[in-house]
User: What shape does this take?
Amino acid sequence: KPTQDWWRTSTVYQVYPKSFHDTTGSGTGDIRGLTKKLDYIKGLGIDIVWLQPVYVSPQNDNGYDVADYYNIDPAYGTMDDFDELVSELKSRDMHLMIDIVVNHSSIEHRWFKEAASSKDNPYRDYYIWKEPASDGGPPNNWQSKFGGPAWQLDEETGQYYLTLFDKTQADLNWENEKVRQEVVELLTFWAQKGVDGFRLDVINLISKNQDFPDDDGSIPPGDGRKFYTDGPRVHEYVKELNEKVFRPYNLVTVGEMSSTTLEHCIQYSRPEENEFSMTFSFHHLKVDYPNGQKWELMPYDFEELKRVLSRWQIGMYEGGGWNALFWNNHDQPRALTRFTDDRRYRKESAKLLATTVHGLQGTPYVYQGEEIGMPDPKWNDMNEFRDVESRNMYDILQEKGKSAEEAAHIISVRSRDNARLPMSWDDREQAGFTSGTPWIKIDERYREINAQLEMDDPGSIYHHYRKLIEFRKTVPVLTDGRYVRLDEGHPQVYAYARVNKQQTVVVISNFSDQEVSFRFPDAFFKELDLKAEAELMLGNTVEAPPLAEIVRLQPYGSYMWLIN
Ligand code: TEU
Assistant: This one.
């Protein structure tokens, strides 16, 4: 096993298997498809591959509805394919992180089938059941994150069960120590199969306020989340998993923290707490949500973006926590389209986003396709969408008074499907993803945007990522340096430094299509001691400006300098 904290200089590559590479012609990706592409991923300098769920699942939420935690869904292959992936990764000195979805299971899981069969079934309390309210309706007013009530009525036994996500994803009852024991056992099973880490899905939602009170709406969004987000026993439960599995197997772990706080993330990820290695938080990806509302649109708030990133950099550094760094994942529209220009300045923009996040403190995550500058696609009609959340919201938005066109537009901007199109490998039919009919459409720009073109071009986005990933291993200040924000509210420029006793790295990015000037704060510039010539580590334009008190930046210009 690698040395302690080896993952602080690592970079993780996130694989959405359904859309990565299909070797059977089924139209969906599979495990062998990933194994065949390991040299492509290794070529980036990636250390850890995060494989999203491939367990037995009815696929209502693309595998985040698990029906059997111990077996591979035939759509993705076999356990032998999984074992081959593990050994092929190890032979390349790479590591495997798998997705663990234990806030809820599919209602197809045998535990749920048993539980729903009768009130006194021994599995009944594996889930959260409540009597109907006096009016016969749901026990409280909590809302599902995919729209609609968070409770489903089981006619058989006349009780409701909790479903914070899709109605086929039943929340597990973590108050029940048998459930906690089941989770320890399944984690141990996969650890013994040689995985090196876990990504734990919405793990901060597992402890619910046992009164299950109505949400009075006094704190937005008023959907009940304040009664189960970072709940009363969550840290206790996580410490138990750490003690029984994470630590004994020296695993790297990342908790996905829905709607969390900086204070909790410090506690979840400080080594002394023995909980997780690091946490995903999402506040920087809500700066284009008007009043936190995902399903309303507004241009993103650039100052708020910089404020949130800075707050988390400074807070986690001072608190001893550790950030998972990312712009993209399978639940978010692609940052290239969302925050920059995916047309005229696509290459500069993709490199700017990479430089901006890879200069921060934490472990960076590269979501499949971002390393080749894949954008959001152009959507033509609602039948092209697959995501359960998007399909639900299309109806709900219209029930709330939006026209069909307005609802379709909002969905096209916000849908998680924006990031779920198959990887564009080359300019063959179906972009080299499948020889069959893809489960979701191929990006219409695949002939100009694909992995083959990127690998062949030394000045590509792919090679920009490769250099950044290498820097994380070779430039210590990127790991331990203190973060200093350098732009004091500049309307287009984000500038920061990372500082330790030996080195300083300066990162400046122009998030606009205008040429702009940036002036360093006097104090910092004097402190910089530029006599020790600043070395340009990486830029995204042919000509890079010299590092000086005033820097002139081209449209979407982004530069990283090292001062030793
Ligand atoms: O995501 C949880 C999550 O925070 C997002 O899905 C968000 O709540 C949703 O997009 C509503 O805005 C995790 C997985 O990443 C996601 O794919 C699953 O659908 C979800 O949990 C349920 O397992």
